[in-house]
Amino acid sequence: MADKVTVPKLAGMKRKGRKVVMVTCYDATFARLVDRTDVDAVLVGDSLGNVIQGHKTTLPVTLEDVIYHTRAVSRGLTRPLLIADLPFLTYQVCMEEAVRNAGRLLSEGRAEAVKLEGGRRVGDVVARLTSIGI
């Protein structure tokens, strides 16, 4: 079995030009299946709103939804890096809220990294989160 994938390991793969294999997963059963493969990273995305909850958009997805599904996925993974989405409006309002919510994904959801969208507009949030080890 290969070593645990970490953020520094992913960065090293990028530097070496190695492609990263990443899939989306929402539950422990599929996480166990993914864990038997060469997948490098697993994302618990806000797309769970469409795929699992049947919504037309991802907007109704709450932080609690992502925490719940991330924790379930964490029970089935040993090797891939577990990444969780920060849902809409969980990091855009203020820095304090962004830090708290990202921290909850790690502490309550057992995520190992977080994903957020917004490009340069959220650069200050990314800088703050990485400065505190998220």
Explained architecture:
There is one protein chain. This protein is of the alpha/beta class. The chain has a single domain, classed as TIM Barrel (Alpha-Beta Barrel), CATH 3.20.20. It is 41% helix and 11% strand. It contains 6 helices and 4 strands. It has helices spanning 7-15, 28-35, 48-51, 63-74, 95-107, 123-131; strands at 22-24, 41-44, 81-85, 113-115. Strands 1-2-3-4 form a 4-stranded parallel beta sheet. Helix 2 (28-35) packs across helix 4 and helix 5 crosses helix 6. The model has no long low-confidence stretch (mean pLDDT 96).
Question: What is the structure about, briefly put?
Answer:
This protein is of the alpha/beta class. The chain has a single domain (7-131), classed as TIM Barrel. It is built from 6 helices and 4 strands; from the N terminus they run H-E-H-E-H-H-E-H-E-H.
Outline the fold blueprint.
Blueprint: H1 7-15, E1 22-24, H2 28-35, E2 41-44, H3 48-51, H4 63-74, E3 81-85, H5 95-107, E4 113-115, H6 123-131
Parallel strand pairs: 1-2, 2-3, 3-4
Helix pairs in contact: 2-4, 5-6
